[in-house]
Structures are given as structure tokens and as C-alpha cells.
Amino acid sequence: MDDNRKAVVVVALMRHGEKDGDALTERGRKQIEAACEALGQILSFDRVLTSGARRTAQCGEIAIDTLSSSLRAEVNDGLMFLETMNMVYGENATKKCLDEVAEVRMAGGGLISALEMSEYARRGRKVLTDAIIALAADMRAKGETTILGFSHSPWCELAAEPDTTPYGLGETDTVLYFVQGDAIIGSVVIPGPLGGKTN
To answer: Nearest 5°: phi and psi at 16?
Structure first.
């Protein structure tokens, strides 16, 4: 492995704040601002990514205002769950997915249970893992070390350590993925400082 591929990069994926439809509420905006301030105390970001949903674009704008006006937000398709969700569930995909999340949680399970019970979680884990690995390669090519992405749940957490990760993150919870070469070598979940509902 060449020295560039040995370097560990950090992909931080944060669930959006409280929403109404596809827009952040005032509380959601405050949650994102507080979470970005907290992350900014421990990490410096090279880039901001969003899933393409309006609520994540709003998160990106708040992150730039909070962290650094020199940052720019861009859409990354790997942060969007809809294609995978629709492929697995078909008609009424959102309701079926949320029902399944509730079923996993009622069974007392986190991500490890979801991977056993849910085709969406299994497929999504592969899709998100591939997206994170591709993003890490792009980061290394650009000389970047840390990016902040805004996405959804259950999605942000699907590539994380299954034994220690919940299935259905709270609003503004963040998963830090540590990537070296073509592998995610670790992850940690950082709770949002203002809390928030889970799926």
C-alpha cells in the first residue's frame, strides 16, 4: 500500500435535524448549529456533503455558517437512501422501512439485529460502504483528511460497527468513519448535543 493509501481519512456522517416535510424546523436548525459547533471543537473539515434532500442542503448551509465560510457544500449520491429503499420495498417504501425499523427496535436490537432481519439494512450497508470507500479515495486524491456529510437514518449508520451501533440514529447524531485504503477500519457514534428523536 503506498503512503497515500495508508493515510487514515475521516468521513463524518450526521443525521439531519428535526424536520417538517423536507425542511428543517427552527429546532432542527438549532440542533445542527449546536452539533456543528461541537464537532468543530474536535475536527477541522475540508468539505461539506449533502444527500440532495432539501433538509440536508439546509444542514450544509448551517455547517458552512458555523464552521467556516470557506467551505462549500456539494451533493453526493451515496448519501441518499431512496434508490436502495425503493428497490427493497417497492410500493409504500417509506412506511415499510419505518415499520421495519420499529420492528427491529421492539426486538431490542441495534444494527447487528437489523443486519440479520432487514434486507434494506444488508443492501444499504454494501451501498453506503462502497460510497464511503469511493469518497475516501477522492479525499486522498484531493489531499483532504476530514469531510462532513449530512444524510438520513437509517442510512448514516449502516456501514458502522454492528455490535455497538444503534439502528435508527437520533437527530444530529454523527457517525465518524475511519477509512484506510479500501477499508473502513473503525467507527464511532457521537450523540447530537441537543438530543432529538430517533426513527
So the answer is: -60, 165
Cβ–Cβ under 8 Å, residues 25 and 171: no
Report the distance separating Cα 88 and Cα 134, nearest Å: 23
CB contact burial 74-104 (16+ within 10 A = b; e otherwise):
eebebbbbeebbeebbeeebeeebeebbeeb
> Which secondary-structure segment (H or E) carries 89?
helix 82-89
Q: What residues does 150 pair with on adjacent strands?
A: 14, 50
Determine phi and psi for 102, rounding to 5 degrees.
-60, -40
Low pLDDT (below 70) residues in the chain: 1-5, 199
pLDDT of residue 110: 84
Q: Per the structure block, which three cell numbers stand in for 197?
A: 428523536
Tell me, what's the pLDDT at 5?
A: 67
pLDDT digits (tens, 9 = 90+) for 129-156: 999 999 999 999 999 999 999 999 989 9
User: Would you call 13 helix, strand, or coil by DSSP?
Assistant: strand
What pLDDT was estimated at residue 94?
A: 83
Determine the 3-state secondary structure of 63 from DSSP: helix
